[in-house]
Specification:
With 100 residues, this protein is an all-alpha fold. It has a domain of 67 residues. Helix content is 45%, strand content 0%. 2% of the residues are buried.
Length: 100
């Protein structure tokens, strides 16, 4: 799946697409996150989860911009390869995984 085509991907859920829309909005300059987008995010995530999601996106933007400023480019280590994420149990009503 190409991230550039995430909107038309059948491999992603509506919530995953929503998160990617948020990441895109946080990545453009200047940052423009529409109120409607954030309202939709609040329907799926707790305040704590939104802080964590926002921080993760901001951190990746920080790293990418820092690397670019220093001329650090991809080394090609993952060319033609990928690292699948392990399957995780779904979140329960309190936003936790498993039986905690």
């Amino acid at each position: 799946m190409a991230l550039a085509d995430f909107e038309s991907s059948s491999a992603l859920s509506d919530v995953e697409k929503l998160v990617l829309r948020y990441a895109v909005a946080m990545t453009v300059t200047p940052v423009e996150v529409p109120d409607e987008l954030f309202t939709r995010l609040k329907q799926h995530f707790t305040e704590k989860q939104l802080v964590e999601l926002t921080s993760a996106i901001a951190w990746e933007n920080y790293r990418a911009r820092s690397y670019h400023a220093f001329g650090i480019e991809a080394e090609g280590f993952s060319k033609g390869a990928f690292c699948p994420l392990p399957a995780r149990p779904p979140l329960n009503a309190s936003g936790m995984r498993g039986t905690h």
